[in-house]
Amino acid sequence: MTWRCVAMTAVAIAALVQRAGAQEPGHDPVLAEIGAPIFQRYCTSCHGPDGHGDGPAAVALRPRPADLTAIASRRGGEFPTSSIARFIDGRFELAAHGSREMPIWGRRFGADVPDAEVGESITRGNIASLVEYLKSIQQAPLAPLEPTNERGGPEQSSDQRSGR
Fold first, then answer.
1. How confident is the prediction for the chain on average, in pLDDT?
2. pTM over 0.85
3. Which of 50, 59, 64, 130 is deepest in the core (most CB within 10 A)?
């Protein structure tokens, strides 16, 4: 797959994320499906295949990797979408807040793309997809988002539109 094809995919993902909104409850099943192989490739060595923090590298890490299936339960049932996205990205953390054990994925995801703008789009798309995947694996799963129409309201079936 060429970097242009990857870039087009990232742009499509970014558009879906804007449509879904960062603070809406639930997860976007399409983005979660895109995020699953990204998680498998980049996250399982530390967080394990199911996100419980039990990957093969976990025994050597201090502190141990987090159980990613309990993000919402540790926060009273709320999934902090933007905080998790910023943490995965890592480029915006302040050094004064301590060391960072996790890789700075915001630097790595688009690094091999010669066009910086396209690389940034790929980075944001990958992070958005990972966040949606993490929402989908929460211990008390967050419900999928309802499809929306162009105006941001819930989609209606043809029966609902005709008043049947």
1. 80
2. no
3. 130
For 12-59, the DSSP string reads HHHHHHHHH-TT-SSB-HHHHHHHHHHHHHHTHHHH-TTSSS--TTGG
Dihedrals φ, ψ of 18, to 5°? -60, -40
Instruction: Give yes or no for a contact between 35 and 16, defined as CB atoms under 8 angstroms apart.
Output: no
The per-residue b/e assignment along 123-146, b for 16 or more CB within 10 angstroms, e otherwise, is bbbbbbbbbbbbbbbbeeebeebe
What is the tens place of the pLDDT at every residue in 44-102?
A: 999 999 999 999 999 999 889 999 999 999 998 899 999 999 999 999 876 655 667 88
Domain parsing of the chain, residue ranges: 3-162
**Residues paired with 27 in a beta bridge:** 144
H or E element: which one contains 83? helix 81-89
Alpha-carbon distance 125 to 29, whole Å? Answer: 15
Nearest-angstrom CA–CA distance, 43 and 47: 6
pLDDT value at position 25?
A: 58
Separation CA 73–CA 52 (nearest Å)? 13
Residue 109 is predicted with a pLDDT of 93
